[in-house]
């Protein structure tokens, strides 16, 4: 423990935060490099966190600021691109035009005007703290990735607001950077993306497989998701609440999470938790009486708009018999060519009353029809005040009231538990304010115009509304009174399915269809993690999970999580392997594979032979979502016990034959590959085998890469330019008579700088199944083995 404080520039105290300047903070570091910021104002808290954040993430965030400003083509080349937040690569030029079109000075002004004085101070302080670190750090001590680079520049207050605006549209417009940034009318471009045929010529399947369709599926199909448990007094050892926060987010880029603890005593704010890079308030966390987490919700935060164009011009559309002009937005960016020259690039993009135009190979902009996107979160100006208010809540009741105040949580459900033993599930997320009459009536184009969008809605949940009449218009978001929630004293959970089934005997029904459409609608098949989550609670309360007792506590909740159980395998594989081993048509390799799967323990444990083989078979079978794979199909009246048993075993065996003929599984040894053999994170100080399964409750999804002929691993950078996603920030929180008792970690560490001691320290703990204490009280913070203090002021 290091108790001496480092005092920087006029700071008035020895690490107690008792400073008079509005830009003053005490940064107390604990194990893992986690900063606990203590200040007398939110401006000071933002200042302290901005400094601590820049210390560990300077280059990563400096690059993101280039993205936000629409300057990537200038600094990183007009021919290059980058890996976006959902794993899609975007070109720098298209990205720059996207950001210049949507994240404007006007949007910044509106966000600032809507913000409280506390939030304004927080964001200006954050920028000042970031700049303080940049200003005070000698060039020789800056990280190699950005030292001396022309794009490493001070952060402005406007940049801070741009990041908040970007965060709000993460699960909506941000999925379509290329499709919005490149959208051009057919008369203005000869791009290969532009088709002259009407878009209705495409089939529903073509729309699903198009770039926009793929982006929609990434947003809607849990590729970025989370688990959350709120366990109440009826099921815990101590009669208090117990929370698991387990977001599954990318390990790269701006969706990385970062730990922080902000204490502003004068404002009754004291929250420890984690946030997205550049968002200077905890999104997930805990205070003295309440703990909460978030999971990606099923809400349709946006709708696509089908526009019937005026035959006289592809930049005009017909609405209620009148021709309406789109708004032309001429934009110019700078781009660096291969020879190093910087050239201006001009493009005119178009917006409508609904929002910007977008297009791809199926959602085309023809001479007769085109598409716009209407995003409710583009006018979400209260996100930061929502986070601030949530952090001040002291019970699940007050948290629900806080969430309903602004309705500004942009894309998440809330799962919470409090010290009194109550739990909450609430979906107070933003959803497009579309009525059931609009969604189920004539507003979804279908046979009337020869379009497949009604079929697309049923099969995928994607909402395309007609822009041809004001009767199909919507404004704002679904109000709090129409949102689903439940408070319980046993438990609640969510794993990115809809609100429908938050606890074993609770079903929330009758809510607006726009909240959960298509496969995510009420009463539909739940994902593997949802059923696993309920089964884990059932087995714990029955005492049949192999652990002592019949209630939850912090330690056994950790054990339940890391078991990495695969419930669908438990329910489907026995019948399949029996049929496989009895088949006279199965090859010797397939029979060997079935023996491996029969003997497998049905978990994605690191030493489990069969886990990788089943993971690939599961993906090949469409994650067993089709009812035809099951002997007893899903029954919404019995969601816990259905589906079960295997059907169509011959078709499944054919898929297995394909797998065992591939170079990944063409030997007995390869078929017995364990997760610890192939889930690899490359680090200079030694590679790390990463726990978790791609489709299991305890989740890690590395990118499959063939590193040598027939040698596959599941990894992340630097072996591949694709990223990994899954377990990120994990927290377990309960209470005793003295206050919160919390453990957890950030799986990829606090720092994105490979030279930092906090780059992979927590990853090694995660791999070893260890957890950090998450200190909250002054005594806990000062007693931490990693304690040190830096006081700053200006």
Automatic annotation (TrEMBL):
Keyword Hydrolase: yes
A single GO molecular function term of this UniProt record: hydrolase activity, acting on carbon-nitrogen (but not peptide) bonds, in linear amides
Pfam families: Penicil_amidase (PF01804)
Any one of the GO BP annotations: antibiotic biosynthetic process
Alphabetically ordered keywords of this record: Hydrolase, Signal, Zymogen
Organism domain of life: Bacteria
UniProt similarity note: Belongs to the peptidase S45 family.
Protein name: Acylase
Organism: Rhodoferax koreensis
Lineage, top ranks: Bacteria, Pseudomonadati, Pseudomonadota, Betaproteobacteria, Burkholderiales
